[in-house]
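chain below, 292 aa
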Amino acid sequence: MLARLSSASFSLFALLLSLFPDTSRRQNELSSENRLLLFLIKLKHNVPFSCLGILFSVHRTTAARMFRATLEILCARTRDWIWWPRRGAVQATMPPSFKVHYPLCRVIIDCTEMRVEMPPSVEKQNLWYSQYKGYYTVKYLIGVAPSGLVTFLSDGFGGRTTDTAITIESGFLNKLQPDDVVLADKGFPGIVTGVGAKKATLVMPPFASGVQFTEVEVDSTYETASVRIHVERVIQRVKIYTITQRVSHHLIPRSMHALRNECYVAHACHSFYRKALNRNSEAVHLHNCAQY
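prediction:
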């Protein structure tokens, strides 16, 4: 039942609950357990606060306040949960499918968009309108290690911003080291120079040199697609949370926090509990994360 309501297992729910501050609650205020459940239900199903108020026997404004307060708590307590691991740790946890063609792969990147309501100002309307999607969005760059661990999440950018601009302005390129290999789709040709300046390599599916792909181009496309599916799976797990499908404009300043928390929930946060118990074994931590 808990998983259906919130997509969280009991162990994950317990981990998130342990992050709440140990303070006495006021009379008639929801318990920490119910506040967390309210928060996760809102993330998963994006039901109106009026419905959450009825479900938890509180006023809708109280439900909204508790959702935002929980969002702020979890964001503050999990701020370092998306981190850039050392190259040795990435290679130690690399699946065999990567070792064949991309043994030096450090990260797979892609952009994802969250639909938002029409912003109030004309300036923001121009910035947030996505020509590709045909509606207003906030756009993020996500980086995933070969093991499946989310290792990079940019700030939010307007839907009009190109993938190249986000990659450059987010500071992602500063993470790269010589000989790193970055896998991306066809939306990132503009970062070839920036990646090269770090003495790293960008690998993208080939563009057809003629009317159709050559045999070599077909093989290269298949090899890239077979490993890029890792980042696509992570994004898909994030998007099971209905709140990402349409964000109210007054929640946009908090959308970054929401997306971060969805990333944590989406790829099994309880592995981070093991990190806290064994901070000296980064490779083991990455391996544990990759199991979920």
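The beta strands are 105-115, 129-130, 135-144, 150-153, 157-158, 181-183, 201-203. Residues 215-238 form the longest helix (24 residues).
thats it, cya
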